[in-house]
Every structure is written in structure tokens, then in C-alpha cells.
Amino acid sequence: MGHVHWARDLARELLEGPLPRRWAHSQGVAERAWSLRAVLGEHADLVESSAWLHDIGYTPDLATTGFHPLDGARYLRDVQEADETLVSLVAYHSCAVVEAEERGLVDVLKGEFAPPRDDLLDALTYSDMTTGPDGNHLAVERRLSEILNRYPPEHLVHRSISRSSPLLTASVRSVQQRLAEVG
Questions:
Q1: According to the model, what pLDDT value does residue 183 have?
Q2: What is the distance between the alpha carbons of residues 137 and 131, in angstroms, rounded to a whole number?
Q3: CA 113 centroid distance within chain
Q4: Which DSSP string corresponds to 51-63?
Q5: Taking a C-beta distance cutoff of 8 angstroms, is the pair 153, 118 a contact?
Q6: What is the widest separation between alpha-carbon atoms in the chain?
Q7: How far apart are CA 90 and CA 175, in angstroms?
Q8: What is the per-residue pLDDT across 83-112, written as a single tens digit (0 to 9) for each?
Q9: Is 1 a residue whose pLDDT tops 70?
Q10: Nearest 5 degrees, angle CA 84-CA 49-CA 106?
Q11: How far apart are CA 77 and CA 153, in angstroms?
């Protein structure tokens, strides 16, 4: 549990002042991740910690490439010397590899960070893709629609989300199935 408190405090420090809405989103994502403890077992704290930290790369002081999964993961690896799996979850969260392709950074992402286990990545993706920008919980379809509506069709985020929507939805459905199985 110590890692969860560290992750929450670090996310608060980096997001609350400069990006209060992103901080609200991160709180909601972490709450969602916490709700998965029954299916995550010994990995529950790891996924919850990654949920707190998944968007720290948006922080202006950390945004060097403009690609928040990469910027956040580099900070966690290089400055915080965080757990390798935690860093990997941040680097790859919510189909980041698709946006990395759009940005011409896929070789950089894959060269610096190994992909995490699919089940852990699905859990983080579920938590992110069922939480709105203000921390409210919503269906994956509404979340995807909300993101697409924020960006014009020619924007790389819109293109990335359009391309990755089936994968994001599949990750959410996979976790929902696991939750149903444990009751």
C-alpha cells in the first residue's frame, strides 16, 4: 500500500495545481482501479499506483515530447526510479502505442520500455476509459465519444482514438468479464 500513497501524493503534486481537471480525472481513474482489487489480487496496488500516475506526463514541467505516456514514463524511470512494471503501464496505457505511431514515436516507445502484461494493461485501460475528464464514471462508448468530440477529425488524438477504439473497448470488456466472473 505504500506505493499507492506515494503515487497519489506524486500525482497530486504534479497535477493538482497546474492541471486541476486532469487531477480530477486521475482521482476517478484511481478509484476505478481500486474497485478491481478482487480481480487483480497481488497486482492491485501496482495497477492503482499506475492509475494515479498515468497522466503525469501532461504536467508542463514534464512535457518534453508532447506525448504524455512517454514523458510521464521517462520521469518515473529517470527521476523517481520507479518500478519497471509501473513505468511500463504508464508508457503503454490506453493504446498509447497507436498514438505513438501517429506521432512517429513508436520506435522510441518500444525501444525504451517493454510492454506490460496484457491483463494489467487491460485493468489500467478499463480504469482510464470508463472515467471522464472530471473523474465521473461512464461507459466506454461515452468516454470514447467524449474524447473524439474534443478533437477535430484531422487531429492525431482523434485519429489515434478512432483507430484504437476497438482495442480499447475490448480491454474494457475483458475486465468487465473478469469482474462478472468473481461476482
A1: 82
A2: 5
A3: 15
A4: HHHTTGGGSTTT-
A5: no
A6: 43
A7: 18
A8: 999 999 999 999 999 999 999 999 999 999
A9: no
A10: 50
A11: 33
Cell numbers at residue 60, please? 508542463
DSSP per-residue string spanning 8-41: HHHHHHHHTTT-HHHHHHHHHHHHHHHTTHHHHG
pTM value is 0.96
Torsion of CA 15, 81, 112, 32, to 10 degrees: -50
CA distance 170 to 95: 11
Please write the tens of the pLDDT for every residue from 108-159.
999 999 999 999 999 999 999 999 999 999 999 999 999 999 999 999 999 9
Cell of 39: 480481480
Residue type present at position 120: L
DSSP annotation of 57 reads G
